[in-house]
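Consider the tokenized backbone below.
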């Protein structure tokens, strides 16, 4: 029964990811990662007895501890990836702002030069 509930919850999550992808709320860049994650969740829910045996084989007596460990590592990897992406976006915004300021200054200088030619 627990396994059935786990499979239903992970299938619901997979359905949400597909829905968000189709409605363009989740961009293609991230959709693949989340589709793979949701699919892995469905697979893990379907293979709970195998996960129990694997956890015991690597020395973890309580399988949920293994699941939490894997989940925490995955979340940390996502956070690092998002931080890198945020840093790149911050650099791009800074560069665009500087380029905009330079172009605005040039435009003002051209406007002043054009006004000077009109008055003479």
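A designed sequence for it:
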């Amino acid at each position: 029964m627990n396994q059935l509930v786990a499979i239903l919850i992970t299938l619901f999550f997979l359905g949400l990811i597909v829905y968000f992808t189709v409605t363009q709320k989740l961009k293609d860049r991230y959709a693949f990662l989340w589709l793979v994650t949701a699919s892995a969740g469905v697979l893990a829910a379907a293979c709970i007895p195998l996960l129990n045996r694997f956890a015991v084989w690597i020395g973890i007596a309580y399988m949920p501890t293994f699941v939490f460990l894997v989940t925490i590592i995955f979340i940390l990897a996502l956070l690092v990836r998002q931080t890198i992406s945020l840093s790149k976006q911050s650099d791009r915004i800074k560069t665009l702002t500087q380029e905009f300021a330079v172009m605005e200054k040039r435009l003002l200088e051209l406007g002043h030069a054009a006004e000077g030619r009109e008055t003479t």
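The helical segments are 2-22, 28-46, 48-57, 63-119.
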